[in-house]
Design goal:
Length: 1024
């Protein structure tokens, strides 16, 4: 047994019936000490464990002064500091600290400084400005410190320091208690903590010795030892920092060292060693430096595999479902109620919508589908309006189906009718649920500020009403969050705050919370932090995370109280060097107290940043002690250690989970045929492997887009049936990339239509083009109705009025990320409209605008040999430029560069001008009997800054050649040739992420091996 347990065993034997109070850092540590004492020396009685704070509370309770002040929690102290900081900042009294504003990080640093000063028994009078390197900083810190003290007195509050100080004074006036007060001699306490222990103990204070630490100076905050340490029963690790003084041993039994590729693999290696050595879980403890990722990694292992683990310090609340909901709600509000953030919470299952009228809650996928279809984007006020608009659209579709306006009848019509009715009911339920959520969240006051207390209460309601707590961890996390929010709301009387500052405070309330702290339990591995672990007495201890950056730390100075300023204020204030020495001594004391096997490890590589990391000095000292040579250096350590533990387990007996087992199997000497095994057991994956193999070859197969369309030819081939109605855009996609056409129009794979928050722009190019088209169509219709020609000066007010109405309507549908972005794009749109009017004024052959948004409704287009297809679309503008002579103008808001070399058909990829010309001639021939209409010009006008009003027109194209081109193009579809276009612009493709053909580069390689398949595609290049 170690020195602490040995001393306690003897003391309990000598004083079996006397009350014995042991002061320990936490109740979890106290329970472990009590269990270790019972395990090592047998039963004990009248020994109880307290912390300095609970001891102070007991003293005040016994004295009758417990009600003399209201004790504060640490969150209440932080909230009070924040409020006072903002109060002084608003009064203009924080010139030095006020430069950064009331940021959470700065306020927390100031709070730490004030708390540390107070726990050392210092007051604002001790914080003299002349002791600081910058007097202004000292003056402002003293000002805040003094205001903090006065507020505590005025409000009858007791922070941690005030509670301890009052208890120490009261205990000094009370008669000595008959109890023995035991305190670990190596405990590092503040002055006020020691005062309350000393005063409460009176003459009965007993310092419990720990195992000696040789070679390190004891920290100043430890109790003073009455004499030299007893080394007779010391374990080998007591000489960790003095290996040259260690007594001679053949070897340092039970000490081992390894390294790993990152913390995750370090944790895996610990588990692999436990499995390989058949160590029961409840005989092992894992310790790691405070703030390391190791406890989190073990929590994730536990959640995924059911690994039985207890956590001495708990886990961050953010890893639980209520924690994710809490921080997700903060992000949702901070992102101006972004629909993406809300969908993320729903899809993760952290936000659960209440059941609707049907009694069944909407599935997350269904809710998110409707939220995205509603095109909400962001903005609190848009949710209900856009959901109502979505419902109205579904209702209109249902009514059109009922009246037969959409032409869908029979069974398909019944299925669609049921689908619309279901969607409407779902949207109603979603709207009601979203309305409930939005009603809970308070809005700003007239000045745009938020009541912080009401905001905390709203978060509490949302977590309580809409959160999920299926596990014990989740239940505890929810309660901890609700308690913390309640404390912040009750103990922080903030004035109304801007939303960002209020959310920063809310985030601060949950940032440091941990849940699930537990003592070691039977059958479970125990994971704890170095400051709080090492008390379990388990025979195997792993100490992980001992890289130089994590332990003993970087020794950075406190930004509020620099080392020089600390030394000037009081000798009791620890400096950054003191903290490093204290950390080293703390680990050395823990190691010295351990009995049994000890394994030290460190991550030797940062996988995220892809850089090497190096061991802490503690690892080198352990290596020297292990080898019995104090002269060994880091190079010797590097040579002696085996290869870093990584992703491979190194044997089936060391495999921790399925991933380890599979990796071991796949890297075994007699390697199994993994692909064959997977294919035999997973048919879908087998199909994928077959597809990958086919694509890797030179032959063109179905997996490259060579598809037999025989069974669906009537549906997808416009020359074989009447189902597939083509458009110019659809034909151009077929010419540009048949594979993209196959995905969109054969498989019906549609890219998601949603509004995503892009803080750099309001409208994407398609949305902007649609808006400009609408404005120009309405403007030219008005001008044409009056029989006028465009005159920039005279028609500017009309254009401005139309543009203002259309822009406002679009703004209601699509929210802008900021007023500045909206104004910039609005000016750009108005500039486009000005360029358009200037181009119309300068047009030599003005003609007469005849029609706008002229519909092509299923026009039959012949391709020769008695074949034809139906075409649909809209022509932006038709001008009459002579008797039976017409011009087609399509507005383009992008760059004219892709069309600069256009003659007639753009190598078969630009079909709209010629195609629309033929369709319009047929339509006009029917509408104007006796006239032989001819489209003399058909092309594009670019009324934008990039286009500068430039026009590109197709004139005098060969109609017969167009029919041959269309026949060749649709022949690709008829043969089922849907390969990726070698010249496709994949960077602008909606299907780039889903393109399984390998893209243009692979298509070029396959074209060389299959010239006959690409022959029809290559013929398109012959059409200029």
């Amino acid at each position: 047994m170690n020195a602490t347990i040995g001393f306690l065993a003897g003391f309990c034997r000598d004083h079996p019936l006397d009350e014995k109070i042991f002061v320990c850092p936490s109740f979890v540590a106290g329970r472990q000490i009590g269990e270790a004492l019972a395990r090592e020396s047998g039963s004990w009685i009248n020994l109880r464990f307290v912390t300095p704070w609970t001891l102070a509370g007991e003293v005040l309770e016994r004295s009758g002064e417990a009600g003399a002040g209201k004790p504060m929690t640490s969150s209440g102290e932080l909230a009070l500091t924040d409020r006072l900081f903002r109060q002084l900042l608003a009064a203009g009294e924080l010139e030095y600290f006020g430069r950064a504003g009331a940021s959470p990080g700065l306020v927390h640093a100031v709070y730490r400084a004030v708390r540390e000063l107070r726990l050392e028994g210092l007051t604002s009078a001790d914080v003299r400005p002349e002791l600081f390197l910058v007097e202004r900083k000292g003056r402002e810190l003293a000002l805040l410190f003094g205001l903090f003290e006065r507020t505590l007195d005025a409000d009858g509050l007791l922070d941690s320091a005030a509670l301890l100080a009052r208890a120490a004074r009261v205990a000094g006036r009370m008669p000595s208690a008959p109890s023995w007060m035991l305190s670990p001699a190596d405990a590092r306490m503040s002055r006020l903590e020691r005062d309350v222990v000393r005063s409460a103990a009176g003459e009965r204070l007993v310092l419990v010795p720990g195992d000696p630490v040789v070679g390190l100076e004891r920290p100043r905050r430890c109790w003073s030892l009455p004499g030299p340490a007893d080394l007779s029963e010391a374990g080998r690790l007591s000489w960790l920092f003095a290996p040259s003084q260690a007594p001679p041993r053949e070897k340092a039994a039970g000490i081992d060292i390894f390294r790993a590729l990152g913390p995750a693999n370090e944790c895996r290696e610990i588990l692999r060693r436990i499995y390989a050595d058949k160590i029961p879980f409840d005989e092992a403890e894992v310790l790691a430096p405070a703030g390391s990722a190791h406890a989190t990694v073990f929590y994730l292992f536990s959640a995924r595999t059911g690994l039985p683990v207890t956590f001495g310090d708990g886990v961050p609340v953010s890893f639980t479902s209520p924690g994710r909901l809490f921080f997700g709600l903060v992000a949702w509000l901070a992102g101006d109620f972004s629909a993406d953030e809300l969908c993320r919470l729903l899809e993760n299952g952290d936000l659960v919508l209440p059941a609707g009228a049907s009694g069944t809650a909407l599935a997350a996928r269904t809710s998110c589908r409707h939220l995205r279809s509603a095109m909400i984007g962001w903005g609190r006020d848009r949710y209900l309006d856009r959901l109502r608009a979505l419902r109205d659209g579904k209702t209109a579709d249902l009514e059109a189906l009922a009246t037969g306006e959409d032409g869908d009848e029979g069974e398909n019509g019944d299925a669609r009718r049921a689908g619309f009715q279901t969607a409407i009911a779902e949207i109603d339920a979603l709207t009601a649920a979203v309305a409930r959520i939005l009603k809970i969240i308070p809005g700003p006051d007239a000045a745009g500020a938020y009541d912080f207390r009401v905001l905390c209460e709203a978060f509490s309601r949302l977590i309580g009403d809409f959160g999920r707590a299926e596990s014990d961890f989740d239940s505890r996390a929810r309660q901890v969050l609700l308690d913390r929010l309640g404390e912040f709301a009750a103990e922080s009387r903030f004035p109304p705050l801007p939303l960002k500052e209020a959310l920063d405070l809310v985030r601060t309330a949950g940032a440091s919370l941990r849940v699930g702290a537990s003592p070691p339990l039977p059958g479970r591995l125990h994971v704890a932090g170095l400051p709080s672990g090492g008390y379990s007495g388990r025979p195997v201890t792993f100490i992980a995370g001992l890289d130089e950056a994590s332990f003993p730390g970087r020794g950075l100075q406190d930004p509020v109280l620099l080392d020089q300023e600390r030394a000037a204020i009081s000798d009791a204030l620890p400096t950054s060097a003191d903290h490093l020495r204290s950390n080293l001594f703390g680990l050395a004391a823990v190691l010295a107290s351990l009995r049994g096997r000890v394994v030290l490890s460190y991550p030797s590589h940062d996988i995220v940043d892809d850089r090497e990391t190096f061991p802490s000095s503690v690892v080198l000292q352990a290596f020297r002690l292990l080898r019995g040579d104090p002269e060994l250096d880091y190079a010797s350590l590097e040579r002696a250690l085996p290869e870093a533990a990584g992703f491979l387990p190194g044997g089936a007996a060391r495999a921790f989970d399925e991933a380890d087992w599979w990796l071991d199997r796949l890297t075994a000497e007699a390697r199994p045929d993994g692909a064959r095994t997977v294919a035999a057991n997973f048919p879908d994956l087998a199909a994928g492997l077959a597809a990958a193999g086919a694509r890797a070859g030179d032959a063109m197969t179905a997996y490259d887009g060579i598809v037999d369309i025989g069974s669906v030819r009537e549906e997808i081939d416009p020359l074989a049936g009447r189902t597939a109605v083509m458009s110019a855009t659809r034909l151009e996609l077929l010419a540009r990339c048949p594979f993209g056409y196959f995905l969109r129009h054969v498989l019906k794979v549609q890219p998601p239509e949603e509004v995503a928050l892009d803080r750099s722009r309001w409208l994407d190019p398609l949305q902007r083009g649609t808006l400009v088209h609408e404005i120009l169509c309405e403007f030219m219709s008005r001008v044409a109705q009056e029989g006028e020609e465009v005159d920039a000066a005279r028609h500017a007010p009309l254009m401005a009025r139309i543009a203002g109405e259309r822009i406002a309507e679009t703004r209601r549908k699509i929210p802008e990320p900021s007023a500045a972005i909206f104004e910039s794009e609005r000016r750009d749109i108005l500039e486009t409209l000005d360029i358009f009017m200037a181009a119309e004024e300068k047009r030599e052959d003005k003609g007469r605008p005849l029609e706008f948004e002229k519909e092509i409704a299923g026009e039959t287009i012949a391709v020769g040999e008695g074949r034809s297809f139906r075409l649909r679309g809209f022509i932006d503008r038709v001008d009459r430029i002579g008797p039976a002579s017409y011009r087609i103008i399509d507005y383009k808001t992008g760059s004219p560069a892709p069309y600069e070399n256009l003659v007639h058909f753009g190598r078969g990829r630009t079909l709209q001008p010629a195609l629309y010309a033929v369709a319009l001639e047929q339509i006009l021939a029917r509408e104007r009997p006796g006239e032989r209409p001819r489209v003399a010009e058909s092309g594009y006008l670019f009324p934008s800054r990039r286009g500068e009003g430039h026009e590109i027109m197709v004139r005098g194209f060969d109609r017969d050649k167009l029919r041959r081109l269309l026949g060749d193009l649709l022949g690709l579809l008829g043969k089922g040739y849907f390969m990726a276009g070698p010249d496709a612009k994949c960077g602008f493709c909606d299907y780039r992420a889903a393109c399984v053909s390998g893209g243009p580069a692979v298509s070029k390689r396959k074209r060389e091996a299959n010239p006959e398949i690409f022959e029809a595609y290559d013929r398109l290049d012959e059409y200029p």
